[in-house]
Recover the amino acids of this structure.
């Protein structure tokens, strides 16, 4: 099996990237001009000393990182709530992500090894978790996360 070297280029699930055993809840995209204008206004109002060149570089980085409108909006709000003042860095925005933890079957077996329901219809692996596509590999995520974030379902290949 060949390992994917650039996970952002993996398109079947349209997810962004992986960090360890987690999936981003955001779809890859492009920030629209309207969303960029709205977000940069909030940033400028909150951090008035930032130079215009900062926003130009931010715009380029958002494209490179395949930010969607939703992820940019959430990143701006997080920046305003959590930034150590006086001034933010572009990394404060582009590093923002919401991740959902995913598990291998073996990891879940280890997690629930003391559960007396293992193998039954009440087995927590299958009552609490659902199979998801983790960049071409089968993983398990909590059912509520799969539903809430529309994570890609695993299709046996």
């Amino acid at each position: 099996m060949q390992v994917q070297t650039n996970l952002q280029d993996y398109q079947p699930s349209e997810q962004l990237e992986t960090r360890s055993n987690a999936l981003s809840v955001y779809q890859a995209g492009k920030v629209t001009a309207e969303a960029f204008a709205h977000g940069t206004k909030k940033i400028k109002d909150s951090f008035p000393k930032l130079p215009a060149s900062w926003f130009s570089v931010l715009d380029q980085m958002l494209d490179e990182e395949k930010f969607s409108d939703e992820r940019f909006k959430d990143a701006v709000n997080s920046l305003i709530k959590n930034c150590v003042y006086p001034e933010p860095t572009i990394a404060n925005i582009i590093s923002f992500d919401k991740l959902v933890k995913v598990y291998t079957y073996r990891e879940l077996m280890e997690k629930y090894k003391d559960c007396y329901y293992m193998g039954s219809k009440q087995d927590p692996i299958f009552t609490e978790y659902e199979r998801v596509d983790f960049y071409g590999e089968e993983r398990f995520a909590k059912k509520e996360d799969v539903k809430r974030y529309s994570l890609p379902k695993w299709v046996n290949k």
